[in-house]
Predict the 3D structure of the following.
Amino acid sequence: MTSKDRLKSEIMQKVAEYYLIEHSDQEFFPGKSRVKYAGRVFDERDMNMMVASVLDFWLTAGPYAKQFELELGKFLGVSEIIPVNSGSSANLVAVTALCSRKRGEQRLVPGDEVIVPATSFPTTVAPLVQNRLTPVFVDCGIADYNLDINQVQAAISSRTRAIMFAHTLGNPADMDAIMQIVNEHNLILIEDVCDALGSTYDGRMLGTFGDIATLSFYPAHHITLGEGGAVFTRSHSLARIARSVRDWGRDCWCEYENPTDGKCGRRFEREIPGIAGYYDHRYYFTEIGYNLKLTDPQAALGLAQLEKLPDFIDVRKRNFMRLYSGLEQWQDYLTLPRWHKKSDPSWFAFPITVRQDAPFGRKEIIRYLEDNNIETRMLFAGNVLRQPGFSEIDCRIIGELPVSDHVMQSTFFVGVYPGLNNKQIDYMLDIFTSFMQASLR
């Protein structure tokens, strides 16, 4: 072992010791400790991987990013993984790639309609607006919170080119019905899987049904890179466009290797129309792009997180079912989540809607939960068209969106993430019970 190797080994040992002192599991005190809705779950392995990357000091995407692509691809069963710096960026890259001139007649062009649920996270819709596409909003279901299939069929017009939606809180949409519509009308399908990593429908991984899909690795999600996200697809040509959009819009595809003449061997043989002579391929831009790459330390953390992902998913499922079993007795007042019989959700959270005839409202129950140190969250933007930033966008709306409005007024969720154990789940159920008993006297 060299002196460098010995020193690195000592650093790793000290990092592990630091983790045990500062970050290892802390005791839960009911009513005093915060029951979070989500959070990062990590150990000394995660910290050591990041430190190892920092010691290498390859700060942009490098060897760890390349390995992260390979390992994530193995988990998803997809060959083309394009890591980015956030789930929101993933949505932007995916939609922008579909608008590329390189796609010829298949490209999306300004004015093309894209069906999207009104109950959406804002950055599922924002890339459509940014690319001058026309969102067509449909309502959602009250218990699965996914897009209403009947309204999707009614939303089809001569300008409809695509469907884009998130599998809400990890709950798979009815992919049989959606794919029937997609195939019947020859539509592009964009799956936002940011909340649903590991969820399956009929044994098939979400994100593999459509043309392109997206993931988020924000700390609240199934694995975390701090920030981070990914685009994935089975299409090599679409993946190459997505990489270009992510990498400033340049045509060069020498991602992790740095040969003098590039992988293609023709780095200095490109010609730009109207410019005499040849141009460096590294500065040959064929897309309107951005710099949306993730960093190598993030990817190093991602590799450690991927090792834990199967266990994370199992814990999310167990926590969800423990909550569901404990809350079933209150279904006269609370609408509990519903999922398709063919689906196996990797739940992001546990959604609850207060029924309209309940003797209390959402405000009362979430205030009681928060006062007892249980975190709650809204179902993201609710009806996104009610949000000020989206109130004046060019769009088409199917119907009055009553369910989306009801979700905005009456729905919230609590956590099932793998940082919660049985003791914390049981405490949550105790607080729900005490609230219900007091409210029903």
Observations:
- The first helix runs from residue 3 to 22.
- Residues 368 and 435 are 7 Å apart (CA to CA).
